[in-house]
Amino acid sequence: MAHKYRRDYINEIQFTGIEPYVTLYHWDLPQALQDKYQKFGNRVKQWMTFNEPHTFVQGYDVLLAHATAMDIYRKKYNGKQQGSVRIAFDSFWFVDPLVFGDYPTSMRTRVGCRLPRFSKAESNLLKGSLDFVGINHYTTWFAKNNSTNIIGTLLRNTMSDSGAVTLHINGKPIGNRTNSKWLYIVPHGIRSLINYVKTRYGNPPVIITENDKSPQNSVIDRMDDPNNPLMSIKNTLKDEKMIEYHNDYLTNLLASIKEDGCNIKRYFVWSLLDNREWGAGYTSRFGLYYVDYKDKLKRYSKDSVHWFKNFLAST
């Protein structure tokens, strides 16, 4: 029944005037859903082939799969459907091949012979195979050169190949930490990131495909709610920290548009509702809407929902 529900859901979205953005592969793809994707062409105009490709597979294969899908879509379907296709990135080593046709020189220098070479045909297929740049942004870190490279020698992955290590400065973190150990609140980081994209890639259209992780007011004063069973629903809905997060990040994003001339087209909060997070399961809550897992999944709008509506109306 999953594919039927999904198709009805897309119809409902169109009927209510909300434009759906569909990711084809977000680390898992049920076969029944894959079989039905061909039915969405006259309903969905905005597509993402992959989400955060470095998370699940070697980038070389994913990039060629994306470019092939993009080529087929442009030649066979786009004339009728008039859609757009992109990947949702959180690592920019993947962007260079899709803009310039090859990995950056810094990456080839660091990774060496472990990094495959594109043929001329593959390079031509890759170059320009994005209608938009999709960016998942949550946090910013301090970093410095990894002079010992012990981690790189042991791991040989995308993190160690960067040649950098993350750190605190004088024992102080870059910002307030959330319930997630890796996530710090650094609003100006998103402005710096978007300006980097503008400078390096010629100011392409950008969609912020994920941002937030829903900072939440909690009894331990962390930013995303650790799903504390002692906190009442009423108190959970008072998410002042989440509102502060939205205000600071969106203010910086707005400045990147109005003051820096960055080409931002869309922004998506992660997430609309509390849901199962890949690493944390149901132990953290990330939604604008609280989901009561103990009472038939009833949903309650948090204070941030009302703030968000007012913010959008004022800009």
TrEMBL record:
Name listed for the protein in its UniProt record: Beta-glucosidase 40
Superkingdom of origin: Eukaryota
InterPro entries found in the cross-reference section: GH (IPR017853), Glyco_hydro_1 (IPR001360)
GO molecular function: beta-glucosidase activity
Native species: Heracleum sosnowskyi
Family according to the record: Belongs to the glycosyl hydrolase 1 family.
GO biological process: carbohydrate metabolic process
Entries under Pfam families matching the protein: Glyco_hydro_1
